[in-house]
Each structure stands twice: as structure tokens, then as C-alpha cells.
Design goal:
Layout lengths: L3 E5 L4 H15 L3 E8 L6 H21 L6 E6 L3 H12 L3 E5 L13 H7 L5 E5 L13 E5 L3 H14 L2 E4 L7 E5 L13 H8 L5 E4 L16
Parallel strand pairs: 1-2, 1-4, 2-3, 4-5, 6-7, 6-8, 8-9
Antiparallel strand pairs: 5-9
Helix pairs in contact: 3-4
């Protein structure tokens, strides 16, 4: 089972952080898709074709960054990046949407931007956020996973990633972790993401990538089959 994972990408440095986190999730078995949200369409055909061509070229640069020209790519038109990604996640049945942190975030820290916050408020998929400057981590990997307890779906997700990568799951306050998995708040609708104020504070104090899991919906990472003898 490969979790469908959309990376929000517009070729900014912070979205390169999202690519780096996406590549780590790919190592855990995620199936990646790059998505770019255009905000307008042109009435003039030639200008519309030019804008679409530029969007496709932008996504191709992201694919080259991932060293995967076969990666699936989608261009969505929406006045709001967050709304466009929420629509795409629902339409694709995506398990995870990956973001970089807000562009004003200090290196090594996590801060959800406007689009990520849109999906953190009843979004249909888990939300992953990379720390600022994560792209410059020479060998990003997940060896230790911290879980902010609450809904069991977060713990099940963490355990699945750990089984896939041979990582260790620890209590969330642990100082040295490579991924922080956060539960949705208890009153969130089933299968939707919402976070409490304490969880939001934990996210904003995190120096590791964050994965916020919908209530009651663990993200399933299949354990690879053992090699044949």
C-alpha cells in the first residue's frame, strides 16, 4: 500500500524543503505527485497556453529536483492555493499533502503557511510540513519518530513508518527526533484534520518535520516483503 502524497510546489525555496520531505516519505513507500495551483485563466488563447506551458515547466523543474521525471504532475486553477489543494486532495483521494514552512520562518523551524493552515482546518488529508531550510540537510532520513498522543491514528501511522524504515517511536517531547506525528483534535470530523491550540504550539516549536494525521484515519505504509532466500 503506497500512500498517495501530493507535494505543493511553486519553485520557491520553501517548496524545495517540501520536495526534500517528499523524498524522505518516498523512501518510506509514499507515491508522490507534484501540484501547482494557478490563480487565474487567460481569456486570450495564446496567453493561456503560455501560462500553462510555464506551469508545466515549473513542475518539470520540481521533477528534476526529485530526480524523477516520471513523477505525476497536476496543475490546478483556483483563486486560493489552499482551496485548490484541498479540492485536488479530495479528488485524488490523497493521503498526505506536503508543504514547506512559511517563507518568513527561521531556518530549522516549522511554521505552517496560509495554504497549509487551510488544510489544517478540516482538510481531507494528512498534512506534512518541512522545517525551513530542510532542503540543505545533506542526508535527510527518519530514524526517530515522536508522537503527540491523542487519536490512535497518529500512533498507528508512526508505527507504520517506523516498521517501514527501521525507525524508533518515542514520546513526543523527546528532543532529538526526525519526524513528529501529531493527532487531530478529538472533536474533528472523522477523516478530517483539525488541531488544538496545544498541538499548534507543538508544531511551531518543532525543529523536525511534522505530520498531522486526520482523526481516525491512520496513514498506511506497507512493510516491504522480506527478500527471497
Amino acid at each position: 500500500m503506497s500512500p498517495k502524497t501530493i507535494i505543493s510546489y511553486d519553485d520557491t525555496l520553501n517548496d524545495h524543503d517540501a520536495l526534500a520531505l517528499g523524498s524522505v516519505l518516498r523512501a518510506a513507500g509514499a507515491e508522490l505527485q507534484l501540484a501547482y495551483v494557478r490563480h487565474t485563466t487567460q481569456t486570450d488563447r495564446s496567453r493561456e497556453e503560455l501560462d500553462q506551458s510555464q506551469a508545466n515547466a515549473l513542475l518539470e523543474r520540481g521533477a528534476r529536483w526529485l530526480d524523477d521525471l516520471a513523477v505525476e504532475r497536476r496543475v490546478v486553477v483556483s483563486a486560493s492555493t489552499g482551496d485548490g489543494l484541498a479540492w485536488l486532495a479530495a479528488d485524488e483521494g490523497a493521503d498526505i499533502v506536503v508543504f514547506g514552512s512559511d517563507y518568513r520562518t527561521a531556518a530549522g523551524h516549522v511554521e505552517p503557511g496560509t495554504s497549509a493552515r487551510r488544510l489544517l482546518d478540516r482538510g481531507p488529508s494528512a498534512v506534512a510540513i518541512a522545517p525551513a531550510n530542510y532542503r540543505n540537510n545533506r542526508s535527510p532520513s527518519i530514524r526517530t519518530i515522536g508522537v503527540l498522543d491523542g487519536d490512535s491514528a497518529a500512533r498507528e501511522t508512526a508505527d507504520g513508518i517506523a516498521d517501514r524504515l527501521g525507525a524508533t517511536v518515542v514520546a513526543a517531547p523527546a528532543a532529538k527526533i526526525d519526524l513528529r506525528v501529531v493527532s487531530a483534535r478529538p472533536e474533528a470530523p472523522e477523516g478530517r484534520v483539525m488541531i488544538s491550540s496545544s498541538a499548534e504550539n507543538t508544531i511551531e516549536n518543532s525543529t523536525a518535520p511534522v505530520l498531522v494525521v486526520p482523526r481516525g484515519k491512520a496513514i498506511r505504509f506497507a512493510v516491504p516483503a522480506p527478500a527471497a532466500a
